[in-house]
Design brief:
Blueprint: E1 5-7, E2 12-14, E3 20-26, H1 41-54, E4 58-62, H2 75-92, E5 97-100, H3 104-112, E6 117-120, H4 130-137, E7 140-144, H5 162-179, E8 187-190, H6 199-207, E9 220-221, H7 228-233, H8 240-253, E10 258-261, H9 264-276
Parallel strand pairs: 3-4, 3-10, 4-5, 5-6, 6-7, 7-8, 9-10
Antiparallel strand pairs: 1-2
Helix pairs in contact: 1-2, 2-3, 3-4, 8-9
């Protein structure tokens, strides 16, 4: 059954026909799309506030690039990057803030500053302290599927049935989190587009995203500006925005609850017109 809400520590996000938008704030020098643009905390905060004004429902702050073959960042450096931004947003904006990290010490500091969501590309498996932290603080979480690590994930990823295998992994993470004491309605699941997948794997996951509703958790998908878009188009220099919008509409049609994007205004406008023209499902 499709989840109709996501419980956060201080609010509940209810889902309608149109997906919520999670705006991306990369406080990094090397993210694949906008690395370096918002490394300065002031620039990052201004960008996040602009995304909120454009209609972002959630603000996702990250201080470590997870693009293919990126290098890990020490926890203190990650904290230096993200903590001023999280603090400022939690005091200046009413949107829930998510911390995009796989380190418990970073997540703890962000939660102490007011963040309500832990968005972890390792499925909360990368740091043994992450699950106890999430349970203890009542943070909402997003557990993502990734084959390997950012340093190895694109080294010949293979699957027999990518939709089934990713779904089975996410089911296992849901069950493990619930067994640790986390209520199901605090858990969102992400198939991890671009994380240890070839182009055909990404396309299969996107076209079958509706199957993840059977897990009973909100489905969160982050496909924005990713390299598979240019590969599907067979254009190395293609603008990724039209492809990002096209996929967002397909996800909305499948009832995906949260879409993580860089271009909030354009995707939101496309979704509004898609809805007005009868493109969204009735329920």
């Amino acid at each position: 059954m499709r989840a109709d809400h996501w419980s956060l520590p201080r609010r509940t996000l209810s889902f309608g026909r149109r997906p919520l938008l999670m705006g991306i704030i990369n406080v990094t020098p090397d993210s694949f799309s906008d690395g370096g643009r918002f490394l300065d905390p002031g620039a990052a905060v201004a960008h996040a506030l602009e995304l909120a004004a454009q209609g972002a429902d959630i603000l996702d702050v990250g201080g470590e690039s997870t693009r293919p073959y990126s290098q890990p960042v020490e926890a203190q450096e990650e904290l230096r990057r993200v903590l001023p931004v999280v603090k400022a947003l939690c005091s200046q904006c009413d949107r829930p803030v998510s911390i995009d990290t796989s380190k418990a010490v970073v997540a703890q500091a962000a939660i102490d500053a007011g963040a309500e969501i832990i968005n972890d590309v390792t499925g909360l498996e990368g740091d043994p302290q992450m699950v106890p932290l999430a349970v203890r603080t009542a943070a909402a979480v997003c557990a993502m599927h990734m084959r390997g690590s950012p340093q190895t994930m694109q080294d010949n990823p293979t699957y027999e049935d990518v939709v089934e295998e990713v779904g089975a992994y996410l089911r296992g993470r849901r069950d493990a989190l619930m067994a640790a004491g986390m209520p199901q309605d605090r858990i969102a699941l992400d198939p991890g587009i671009g994380f240890g997948k070839r182009t055909e794997h990404n396309v299969q996951l996107l076209s079958h995203a509706f199957r993840l509703h059977a897990l009973g958790c909100p489905v969160l998908v982050g496909h924005s500006r990713k390299g598979f878009i240019r590969r599907v188009l067979d254009e190395d220099e293609a603008d990724p925005l039209p492809g990002t919008i096209g996929v967002a509409l397909a996800l909305a049609r499948q009832g995906v609850q949260v879409i993580r994007v860089h271009d909030v205004r354009q995707v939101r406008q496309a979704l509004l017109l898609f809805e007005a023209a009868g493109g969204l499902p009735d329920s």
